[in-house]
Request: fold
Amino acid sequence: MRPNIKDSTILVTGGAGFIGSHLVDRLISEGAKQVVVIDNMFVGSEENLAAALSLGAVLYKDDIEITSSLDYVFSKYNFDIVFNCATKALNYSFVNPKNAFDTNVTGVLNLLEHQRRGSFKTLVHFSTSEVYGTAVYEPMDENHPINPTTTYAAGKAAADLAVKSYVNMFDLDCFIVRPFNNYGPRQNYKGYLAGVIPITAYKILKGQKPEIHGTGAQSRDFIFVQDTVDAIIKLYPVMKKADSVNISTDGQISIKDLIHQISTLMGYQGEILQKSARGADVETHNASNQKVKEMIDYQLTPFEVGLRKTLEWYKENIK
Ligand SMILES: NC(=O)c1ccc[n+]([C@@H]2O[C@H](COP(=O)([O-])OP(=O)(O)OC[C@H]3O[C@@H](n4cnc5c(N)ncnc54)[C@H](O)[C@@H]3O)[C@@H](O)[C@H]2O)c1
Reply:
């Protein structure tokens, strides 16, 4: 039997990051007994966890790639569930391809070894739509070929296979959630690791010109972060071992339209710079969310509502 979230002791790796910190907040409101975060603060921040820490969550600033670091955290608690959110952003794989791969693979292997030895019961592993690569058919469902185009995605794809093989070999209780592009408050906006929505908001707030890379016709399926977290909480009791599920919307927005929409909502009327395409950028990520819809009561925030909330957060938090 899978442990209930309520009354469980839960570890969230990468929990000081964007999705992880929203998940931590939600786990606390679901009545988790104790939520513990391990995050090496690569992009994570204590501010993301301000509310959670004041409600009793515990943060270890440490690294899941280091086995002895995981060992001491696991020795302190009797964990029921681990949510594995830790990763280094896709953009990092362009500057440090090996470590972007390693974080995704070594991290989950270390967790699976702990699970195999009985340190906890259930692993919820975060994959990414990036494992599918550019669509060979659309919308991309869970049977779409795995064709990663970056070492970040290759590491994620390898991690998914590791999870499945450990379930197969040792009958562990693990399942895989595969979000598409998330957006929302707390998404990192600093430096070259930032995603398109935060970086555009940042540039406009700092008086710089927003940029479109390539034609801008490349499109993404953007989901509001709290919808992703809500879906994961609802999927938790119903997912089968080793199964994976897309978490996405029915929407599809081109990067060009997105930049224009952000500009309009932020009252920006200046120039938008045209830049060359980024290597290995996938063209479309048009997801099928049929499976998730059949499994849970799936609620999605309209894109404009989520985008307004997100831009408000950037206005308040980018000084
Ligand atoms: N944000 C998205 O659009 C998106 C889309 C698909 C999948 N995902 C997946 O969801 C998960 C969460 O993504 P996110 O957007 O919150 O990313 P994020 O970068 O905001 O959070 C990841 C966290 O992991 C931490 N971290 C990195 N390396 C670590 C290590 N070795 N040990 C411990 N902590 C480490 C970082 O400091 C960061 O706080 C990831 O697994 C990601 O692949 C995200």
Summary: The longest strand covers residues 173-179. The chain has eleven helices and 13 strands. The pocket of nicotinamide-adenine-dinucleotide is lined by residues 13-14, 16-20, 38-44, 63-65, 85-89, 103, 107, 126, 128-129, 179, 181-182, 188 (CB under 6 Å). Residues 97-116 form the longest helix (20 residues).
